[in-house]
Structures are given as structure tokens and as C-alpha cells.
User: Fold these one by one.
Assistant:
Number 1:
Amino acid sequence: MNTFLAQQVFRYFLTSQHKRGHGIHSPFVYNLIRSVFIDTTKYPEYATIEKVRTQLLGNKSSITLQDFGAGSQSLQGTQRRICDIASSSLSPKKYAQLLFRLIRYTKPSNILEMGTSLGISGAYMSLGHPHARCISLEGSAEIARVAQQTTLQCNCSHIDIRIGQFSETLSQALEDLGTVDFVFVDGNHQKDATIEYFETIFPYCNEHTILVFDDIYWSQGMFEAWQYIIADTRVRISIDLCKLGIVFFRTGIVKQDFRIRY
Ligand SMILES: C[S@@+](CC[C@H](N)C(=O)[O-])C[C@H]1O[C@@H](n2cnc3c(N)ncnc32)[C@H](O)[C@@H]1O
């Protein structure tokens, strides 16, 4: 981690607000925190999905990797064990379960995921609101095949997993959905690409759309992309959780940026 990034993480820890919502005056964000962030219910879906994660973590078979994302470029075309992908690429359960609760609470009619990997976050999101139409984009065909198995095991085989680089699949997915309600951007963690995804997705957003960006402190570039996004006047509320960044476009509320210790 370079000095700039270390300073930003330090600043986050110094300035972030308590996760129980103390001192937060926005009723919208306060309600979200009380209903979603601090909900400690053990939903039965958690156990189903975590059982599959455990199986993936124990799966020693190898697949050919074709990762287009930042940070994994050197692994292109190489063999990689499923257990290694499971331990390095999947959203930790704390954050995947937050996505589940966010979706359970907001009930989006559709969900778009960029970066399926082995299907764990997709399963959480889809089970958060099983009636939602769900599209998940993945560049690597072999990884996507494993994700299909995950969706079967988690009873969410209705997730439409589309294989291809985001540059080839994103526009069609957006066209098919018409308007997007919930988007999780979790692949190709590079500044310019992330900004481009934001700009491409924005015309399909409505005032209730929620965009979630993963790894916003992963690199200086990702942090700068996050700063670009939250500075946009179309974004009304942003919540920085250090690992995830969440943005809302709701009209009629004062533009505000929150940092919450999660
Ligand atoms: C961090 S993993 C996703 C993890 C998953 N969302 C989860 O939490 O369970 C990112 C995935 O995005 C895919 N990916 C990265 N860049 C891509 C691109 N430009 N086009 C298509 N897929 C890409 C990678 O192959 C990888 O499987």
C-alpha cells in the first residue's frame, strides 16, 4: 500500500462514524443503518451459501483462469485451483451478507452484478429478493461454469450468468434490463474502467437505484475513481465503508457523503 493510500485509510478510521448510526442526522441513512447494517439476524440463506463457500474452499481441482481484472493480469491463461480463487476473490461473508440485507430491505426489481467469480455474492444478492431479475457478468468461461453449480446448490439458478468481457456484455445487459435498481461493480478494479462503468450505467439508473463498488481503497486509482463518483452532483448520498462504497441517487435530499465504520 503506498503512502497516499495508507493516509486515506488512516483518515477513514479517524473520521468514520459509528456503525450504530450515532450522530447521523440523515433520516434516510439512519434508517438504513438501523434496519440493514446492524441487523444481526441469522437468516437461513446465510448457512446455505456459506456451506457452498466451504465446499469451494476445499475444492483442489484446477481451472484455466482468464481473469481480465486488475490485480490478476499476471495469472491470465494459467491454471488455478478453485480453492485459491475462493480464498482470494470472493466477497467476505460480512460484506456479502450486507448486500443480502440491503437487497432484502430495498427489494429491487432487478440486480446486475459485474464480476460473478464463483457465484457467492450473486447467490447472496439473488436470495435477498428472489423475485428480482438477476444478471451477473463474468469474463472467464471456466469460472462461470463453477458459478452455475453454486447457483444450483443455493437454489438461485435463475441468475442469468453472461460470459464475456464487460466491454462486450455490459451494454446489452443494461439494454435488457431497461432500468437498473441495484448494481454491484466487483471486477476490473482500475480507475478509468470504474469511472467508465459508472458513466455507462448512470443513464439506466432511476432515483431508487443503488450502486455498490467493491474495493474502493484497493489502489490509489480505485480511491480516485470513488472520489470522482461521489463528487458527481447526480449522486445524492454516498456511504464509504472502506471496503465497499454505496451510492444513492434519491431526489429531494441534501447531497451528503458518509463514512461509516463497518
Ligand atoms: C473479485 S471477483 C468477483 C467476486 C464475486 N463478486 C463475489 O464476491 O463472490 C471479480 C471477477 O470479475 C471478473 N472480471 C474482472 N474483470 C473483468 C472484465 N473486464 N470483464 C469480465 N469479467 C471480469 C474476474 O474474472 C473475476 O472472476
Number 2:
Amino acid sequence: MITCPWCATSYAAFQPNCSNCGGPLPAEQPHAEAELDWPPPAPRPFLDSYAWRLAMAQGGTIAGGVLAILGGVFSFVGVLLTMGLITAIVGMPMFLIGAVLFIVGAILLRNGYNQALNTVNVLRFGEAVRGQVCDVQQNLMVRVNNRNPWVIDYQFRLNGVEYTGQVTTLQTLDAHWRVGADVCVLYLPADPRQNTLYPHP
Ligand SMILES: [Zn+2]
């Protein structure tokens, strides 16, 4: 069994690239506990569609999609009602409400996609550095597929500057994920605030 270190998809047999995210899969299963896994050098191949898949796994983006669809339907029905003179009194406000819903939804969708695109850029072009886990918490406020996501906070140091990052995952975490544990962090040299963990938990 091989698990993709970039998106945590599992495969029964080895293949060179993950079909979910497009990232390179390691030839062999990770090994010794104490050793950190380091990613292959940048640039790495990732599928453009992976950004959408990442975005649509976020609550805010899903809500944005629902709002945009609802807003679109509302506006459309509103326009139809406005064309009938008697129903225009209902149609006009309906169109306005629909338009507002659509705009809010579109903004949420765009923000979610841009954020996911940033993450994919970190995976593609990120440099690796050693960091430390500073907090591991289960988010009991959120439930997805009957599970509470884990939130991992980590920090790393570059040229004397301390940076922090956070990764959320629905995977079951093994004992490796404890406060103080060394982790490999991928960051964009142009903007280290854009960072993520490797392998993705
Ligand atoms: Zn993958």
C-alpha cells in the first residue's frame, strides 16, 4: 500500500504520479521513524484540477458554490416574474436578492480557489526546511463525514525569522504528530507565509 505524500490518497500498487493531485509518489514506503521524509526538488508536477478539488473540500468554498447557484436561480426566476407586469412586484426584489446572493457566492468561490491555488503553488515550487509541531488539536466545532478534523500548528525559522503555519486534516493521526516533533515544511521562498507540511498528514 502506497499513500500519496501530497494529498494522502492510498494506492494498492506503485504508480509514478498520483491520479488525484498529480504529485510524484515515492518509490518505497517510508521507513525509519526518526528520519524525516524530504520531497523531490522543485518544480514538481501537479494537476491544475487539483486546486479545484482542494478548494471544494473547504466549507467556505462549498457555501460559496451553493449561494452562487441559489442566487443564479433566484435572479433568473426574478427576471421572468418581472417580465409579467402583474408579478413584477415580486420579481424585482427577487432579482435583487438573487443578484446579491450570486455576488457573495462568487466572491467566496474565488477566494477559496485562490487560496487552493496558493497551496498548489507551494507544492509545485516550495523549498523544504525543518520545522517543529507546536500544537495538535482536534476541532470539535466542525464535523465532516462524522469526523472532527485535526488542526496541526507548526513553526519554522528562516534567516532568523520565525514563521508559523497550520494544516487541517480528516486523517487519523499516528503518534508521530506530537508537540515538538520535527516536520518537513514546504514554503515559497518569495513569501514564506505560504507554506504547508510534507508529507501532507
Ligand atoms: Zn496525491
Number 3:
Amino acid sequence: MLLGGPVRDKIGLYTHPPRTSDTVRAAADAVEVVESGHRALKIDPMMISIPEGPAHYIDGQISRKGMEDAWAMTAAVREAVGPSIELLIDAHGKYNVPTAIDLCRGLEESNIFWFEEPVPVESNHALQQVRDKINTKISVGERIFTRWEFIEIFEKGLADFIMPDITWTGGISELKKISTLAESYYIPVSPHGASGPINAMAAAQVMMSTPNFYKLETSRHDLSDFNKFIDEPLDIRDGDLYVSDRPGLGVNLLPDALKRFAIEGFAG
Ligand SMILES: [Mg+2]
């Protein structure tokens, strides 16, 4: 209500199956996500061929086998979930320009919905080069933190979707401002989400008042573990999150639960 009132009665989610190097397993896991009611899911089928981990970048390349394995896994997932499920691919900002283009051209055979962060975030010129050579829609924004950085994305038409993370952008006000900017360019917003229930609920509250909303990201289809940390369980049905009309975010953290599940030595 404080952000202008709701324009929808629920928040559509998209989510991730577990990471695996097994193509048969990936297809079965994707089917499990669809059976939970979700209509969109995201995978990074290249990650299994980048042994150094998700944050690593040396030359922006992937082996030919890694590329072919990614195409095969994506095709298997598409085959398993059918043509109408939105299949999103996350490149995690790891590739140089020609690698990103080659990768995406093979993935396009599986009718992917978007190609996320094809190149590292520092060069919008590189993003433009990829943009010019692929047909798939592009999503960027989890590594972009303020409204000013998004302006060039909009002005140069570098993305079809943006995906700011409410925590990393600095909170509710900045996500709302970025979303309103995006609305002016007719670009949908799909907040990034890879952490806990407060991140999800805060982004959901902003998206309730945001007309240009696609879907909210969650890291798994069954979020019941989140409920151990909050005083009101999340209401998720058939891939949609229903936002409580309780004050504030609608949920509160339980400090005792944070202590109970704390990893020893992680916090002082
Ligand atoms: Mg991502």
C-alpha cells in the first residue's frame, strides 16, 4: 500500500532444479519443478564444465565438449518439459563475446526463453556485440546495483528483461525506482533471488505494486525450509507466491532460528 497499492493478487515465481552433470537427471528434475506448478525454470548447463566455479573468469571460454554438453542438456530438458514451459539459461557473466554468441546459437535450438548475463558486467559494448548476433531475449541486472547503471541498458536497448536483486541494489526504494525507470522503457522486471525469505518477500512486496513484472526468482521449488526462519509460513501454491496483508513485509525473522541454524564460526 505504501508503494502505491497492488496491481496483482499474486507473484509468479521461476525456480531452479538442482545442479547436476547428468542429462537424464536434469530432465527428471525439471519435470519435478513443472509438477510443482511452476511455469518457468532456469538452469546453467555450462557450469558443470567450468571446474573453477561460478565466479571464475580467465579467458571467457568453454571447451567444445562443454558447449556441446550444455546444448544436449538443454535439449533434454526442453524435450522433458514440453514446448510451453519457459526455459531460462543463466550464463553467469562468464563468457567472452564469440563464446557467448556460439553458446547462445546452439541453445536457441531448444527454444530458450532468455539468455542471462552472457558476458561479464563491466562492458556494455561486449553485451551490445552479443545482442547484435543472437535472436534470444537477454536478461541482465543481478550485478547492476543502481538506477544510473541501468539507464545505459535501457537507452541502448541492451536487454529485454532486467533482474535487479533487492538486497544488492540497496533495498525497497532503489528497486522501486529502477522498476519505474524500466516501466518507462516497457522493460519487464524479474528480481534476482538466491538468498532467504526476507529477500524474497521484500522483492515480492515491490513487485505487487509494479505493473512491468515478469517473475520472481527463487533458488528451489520447495521453499519450506525458509519457514523455519520466519514467523508466518510463505504461501506458495502452483508456482505463485501470495503476499500477506500483515504490516511490513508480511513476515518477520525469528532471531532464535538464526542462532539455531548458524554455521559455527561464520558470524561472531
Ligand atoms: Mg543469474
Number 4:
Amino acid sequence: MSRTPLPFDPSGIQLDRRQGLSRQLYQALRERILGGQLGSLVRLPATRDLAEALGVSRNTVVRAYDQLYAEGYLQGRIGDGTYVAELATKARSKASHPPVKPSAPAQSNLLQRLQTEYLPPPRLDAPRAFRVGIPAFDLFPFETWARLQANFWRHPPMASLGYADAAGDPQLRELIAAYLRNSRGLVCDPGQVIITSGAQQAISLCAQMLVNVGDGVAVENPGYRAAGKAFALAGAQLHGVAVDEEGFDTRQLAGLKDCRLAYVTPSHQYPTGVTLSLPRRLQLLEWAAREQGWIVEDDYDGEYRYRGTPLSPLAALDQHGRVLYVGTFSKIAFPGLRLGYLVVPPTLTEAFSQVRALGVRHSEIGTQAVMAEFIAAGHFQRHIRRMRRAAQARRDALLNGWPAAVPGCQPLPVVDAGLHLSVRVASRARELELVQKAAAVGVELNALSDYWLPDSPGSADDRAGLVLGFAGVSEDHIAKALTALKKAWG
Ligand SMILES: Cc1ncc(COP(=O)(O)O)c(C=O)c1O
């Protein structure tokens, strides 16, 4: 019996009999249509003929054709067989030409900005003298924390296991609002408190929400580089503002016409340790009200004040809803907890919650609930008092044990607040020498030069100094580190 020749050669179609045959046939035909081997309006063999040619059942071919019909690759003419659809030409022309590769890899703006905004890697070993940014980990009541954790997870409220409020645990937000009222004189509604993953996320949310690409952002110089980098990553043009004995020099804002936001650490400037004076606080608030600018107030270590009463935070003085207040549990508990908060003006609460919801939904429930219980049961207040006493004793160990005269290094300052101090050194070369000699005997000193923006005014020597954290290790460790330093420095 003579056969009708098939309109296309199916011999290249290889089907694996261990797998779904009609699916494979559908894919093989679709590939040929998209690749152009089966052109528009080419007639396909009758199902019986193709089944015979491939050695499969007719049903297999019918199912493959049906799928191709359903997706628009084939069209039929009644009584006249099956044809490749004309529609397929468009798909084919797209599919048969590989996409043109750009000569350079396409990069998002964010990726490009990131190239200059990397943070140095964190130190991953145990705390040492004189690491900055860490409190007394050794005094944290881990037993109490473990008990509260166990209590929570033994019988977690079923209602709390689903998706939760993006702004954070309501009880924790209430307790933070009460804490801020009592300890800082900052009166806010719990609804204005947004729980974040540490101060850093609070700062970067502010950058994301309040800064447009190209906006000016004023940052303290020297200052907290991780904050500056978060604003730069959002596309801000950073303006370094000098810090003098009254703190952030608000007079410089007048010359920064494009400035939309100022990031400041008023209670204890990082890293110089200066407190922002009341006149400067009022000037800064006036600037924000006049220019419709924003102030991000980072109160990262406000719990540590050893003398005098702290000045009211900017957020407590703000009459125009221009201040976003950032707080963290990193310096009272430990940074690994990643728990912080923002207090935002009422007009922004919904927007900040939304952005958190779209980013991470919300923070993990256990840590929030346990922190709420830790505060409610009085452990937090007790721990603050313990930490303040310890930091003060460790500060004294450093101040009293520091070598009497270190050539090229000014005497250590009076330290009334915080967990670190900074001191000027005569030149960049001397700063490097002191840091390197200390490192050689296992003592960590930080170069003040690293806290300045690139292209800061003045010479490298004007920016030299040392930054010393004193709270991370015991008085004993501090004494040993000082003995080692004295030897290393001769
Ligand atoms: C000025 C300043 N802000 C914020 C933080 C910390 O924030 P986080 O809560 O993200 O650990 C630090 C840590 O050293 C800091 O120095």
C-alpha cells in the first residue's frame, strides 16, 4: 500500500517511552513551530499517519494536537486537516532570534550605587578591648531570657502564629511608648512606634521612604558611616556637616539648598561624643519646619548617661511632625538580637507599616513577645541600671589606666555618656602607628580617619584620632589591654 508522503519529516522526533508521550510530542512540535522548521500554514499529518510514523497510539497524537490547538499553535479547517497557525509567525520571529546582549552587563541603579557603599565586614570574634559599638554582653541575663523564650514557645498564642501587624507586636510597641515617655520625655502614641530589625533598618527605611534620587542629605562629619551609606544607597547626595563642641553645626544647613533630610545623633554624637546643644536643637527643628525637611534622630546609646540630665530629644521638642526617632536594643541587650524601633510622625505610620509589610511582612514574633515580657516584668529596667553601672566602671578603668602621656595623642576627654570615647592624634601617620602597634599586641583601636566622608575638607592630619569602645569587656581585660599597650607603645 502506498503512503501519502508526510508534509514534514517526523524522523527527528525522539520520544522516550518511559515518560508521557503526548507531552513530549506536544513539546517537540511546539519547538519546531517556534523554531521555524514548521512554517505558518504548513499542513500537519493526519493523526493516524503521524501515530504510525512515530510508532505511538493515535490517542497520543490527538492529545498533543489538542493541546497545540488550545494554545493557538495550530488551526484547523473543517474537512481539510490541521495547519500551523499564522499566529505562530509572530511568536517564532521573537523566539528564533536570541535576545540582543548588551555590551556591558545591565545593572540596576542600586547595584551601581552599592559599588561605593560597602560596609567593612563585621568582626566575628569574641569582644576585645577596645571594640566600639558593643555593650557588656557578659552581663546579659541569659537565664531569664531563656526562661521567657521557653514560656512563650511552650504555649504560643495561636492567634499570633499567622501573619502579624507589620508595625510590630502591639504590646511591645505600647511598652516602648511608655518607656520613651518615662525615660526620655518623648510622648507618643504606641501606633507611631514601628518595630524594626535594629536601628540600621530604621535608618534605611527612612532613606527609602523620605529620599528621592539626587536629594541632599546632611550627615554629621565625622559620623556614623553606616547611616550615610544607607542614604547614599537610596540615591542621596551626602553633605558632610562639621561637628564642633556644640555638635552638628546647623549654620551650615543654610548653604545646602537641595537638602531634604538631616541625620543626627544628638544625645551622644557618633563618634566624637559631643551632645547637641539646645540652641542647635532648636535651629535644626526650625530648619526642618521651614524647609519641610526631615530629621532622623538616632538615639542609639541614650541609656548610657553618667552625669547630668539628658536634653530632651528632638522628637520631644518637635511641633511640626518633622522628626523620626530611631532607637535600638543593640546597646542594652546585644546587636545580634536585631531589634530596634522607629517613632514616626502620625502622618507617616501607615506608609512605614506598608513598606515593612512589602519588605519583610513583619519581624519574627518570638523575640518581640519575649522582649515585651522582659520589659513588662521589670527585667529591662534592672538590666539598664546594671549595664550603666558596668559601663561607668569600665570607662573609669580605661580613663584611670591610660598611659599618662602618649606622644602625639591628646589626653583622654571627660566622658559623661555613651560606650566609647574619641581623642585627637597629631597626624594620620601617628594614628596609623598607634593603631598598628596596638593590633600587634591584640588590642583593637579604631582610627578616627575612618569616620569621615571621602573628600572631607582639611588635611588627613586634621582628621586623625582614635576611637575607643570601653564597655565590651571587663575591667580586668581593660587593665591587661592597657598594660600591653604601654609596652607596645614604649
Ligand atoms: C550611631 C549608631 N547608630 C546605630 C547603631 C546600631 O544599630 P543597630 O541597632 O542596627 O545595631 C550604631 C552601632 O554601633 C551606631 O553607632
